């Protein structure tokens, strides 16, 4: 197949040619703000900080925390197909690197994705020499795709997700994205709507495949920390609100205030999506007269703590093991919800608000088996917290997760068939 280089890509390449002029200054400013790794930031300039492992290497990329963690099940399936394979995972955010390293599968290392400039990309590819490049969900960088394809490395787009807004935005540069997507040998969306949008943007032979998130191993937790927390909270009714945003936190605090009237020793664990943003939590706790404690300050909740805030990254595996019910964050407000499968995999009942737009096929599957519960207001959330019937949902959710997760092995078969010979 003959690939064209549209004028829009030439303009993009010219624009991104300016990146080296500002890259180091930009990254150092982000380091000062705590948004970049203080020693590994050079990876974003294509400078590897780890040696390449011997043998065949599959490179997988996803942009942020949730997307990177979702790759673990696929890596396990690929490793099961060939135990000699090695894996490189790249992402863009500091949080994703910290949490992934605690949950990394066997034979897997992490690096930050280089900025989208040919010089950095070539240095990255020269060092790592991947035998297959896999991109997950939404993030696509044109210079990366063109350079990877130029070096004869097979390209796959998996778990694709395009919202209507993202589709409209990319449609303005259809010739550019057509040229990008047609360089992928394998393209799969996680729902029919995304598959249709990818096809309209020029991707060829688009497939659909269920989300990768259902097939991942449970999040890790430190056994010593878990035992200490279980001992210090023994006998208390514990529930969690995870990956929360302000709208979720407001709802959780209001429901917890009502819960304390009937169960005075109840404990709410809140794990904010962005631990640096605590204003809503502090104000809400003060408004409702609740005793607030922070993981980073006290390590353990006291007998007087009513709301315990996880202001640390990478401990969701701990909170899902400690709690019996979890409110999935991002489901109130306009975020569209976060991953419900992490709770399901650790036998924690899934409660969520009315907006799980990021997980529509997943929630349909869970609700079809009465394995998750939607609540639209404080009354509904409070009712779910005192209803013992919600504790019957986790086993059903595990069945759904296992069924959906098995499909990842079919995907692994297709991807291993693409490995560079």
How would you describe what is shown here?
It is a single chain. This protein is α/β, with parallel strands linked by helices. The protein contains 20 helices and 14 strands. It has a seven-stranded parallel sheet with strand order 3-2-1-4-5-6-7, sandwiched between helices. Strands 10-11-9-8-12-13-14 form a seven-stranded parallel sheet, with helices on both faces. The longest helix is centred in the middle third of the chain and has 17 residues, at 246-262. It starts with 6 loop residues before the first helix and ends in a 5-residue tail after the last helix. The model has no long low-confidence stretch (mean pLDDT 94).
Counting DSSP E segments of at least 2 residues, the number of strands comes to: 14
Proportion in helices: 40-55%
Report mean pLDDT, rounded to a whole number.
Answer: 94
Q: Compute the separation of the termini in Å.
A: 20 Å
Radius of gyration: 22 Å
| DSSP summary: helix tally | 20
Structural class: alpha/beta
Profile the largest sheet.
7 strands, parallel
How are strands sequenced across the largest beta sheet? 3-2-1-4-5-6-7
Strand content: 5-15%
Low-confidence stretches: none
| Shape field | globular
